[in-house]
Target: Aryl-hydrocarbon-interacting protein-like 1
Amino acid sequence: MQDTMLLGLEGIKKIILHGGTGDIPKVITGAKVTFHFRTQLCDEERTVIDDSRVVGTPMEIVIGNMFKLDIWETLLSSMRIGEVAEFWCDIIHTGIYPLVAKSMRRIAEGKDPVDWHIHTCGMANMFAYHSLGYDDLDELMKEPKPLYFVMELIRVQQPSEYNRETWAMSDKERLKVVPVLHGQGNKLYKQGHYQDATQKYKEAIICLKNVQMKEKAWEAPWLKLEKMGNTLTLNYCQCLLRMEEYYEAIEHTSDIINQHPGDYKAFYLRGKAHAEVWNEAEARQDFSRVLDLDPGMKKAVKRDLAVLNMRMEEKNQEDRNKYKGMF
Model:
């Protein structure tokens, strides 16, 4: 069906390529919409930028959940189930697309779309490094262009018809689920399921970061969320130590220390990680800082230093035996 129409909004044209069935479904706030999409440049080749079918997984968004490319909500709201339509959108609607595409590509690559462990937002990182990490998106960011979106509407689920994942929640819902995820992570940690525990902690951290980025840095609401996030990150690092992921533990605890140099728990966990990778001087320095910040940790630190002394002596003896008689 070649039915060209305007949607009553400036800079949008729609062509129905394949008609859908039934009435146009109600797309209310909280509804989850599942669809395939293909993004193309408006050049002679109709160069494809992104294609969910190539990835193999349809896209899902929740209406009214602050999806950055809000024009997609408008486009999808005009479609019937099973309909395939092509939308031409002017640059007034497509300027933010490169940032959205970066997140979608990172998800497809199995990476974290929000870089939860970095203490700056994606926009700040982009300006700091002058790149989104994809050449075509960098070019599109420098010079916004009109785009074609070819969409196929697969399913619309009302809020009561599906179990909402954290990415689909409102900020209020995210804050409510954080302590639940925290408790689940703690239980899994005690059971020795460290990998599963990290996923719970990480999901809770992502919830907090999504809310925190909307607050003004270093003001009371932001600081409250920061404290909650640091606690979860330290729990995450305890799992990393159990999983022998020492360098990642050092990275995350160092992030906390750089922002909050008075956090003795971060120094303590980093000291333990340093000790495991034979960074003796760094470990001793961190343990010393722990005692400066919280003398009540003396017993625990004394125990860890004794273990460190024993391990270093064993290593030194092995080295002496290894090189004995070589000179």
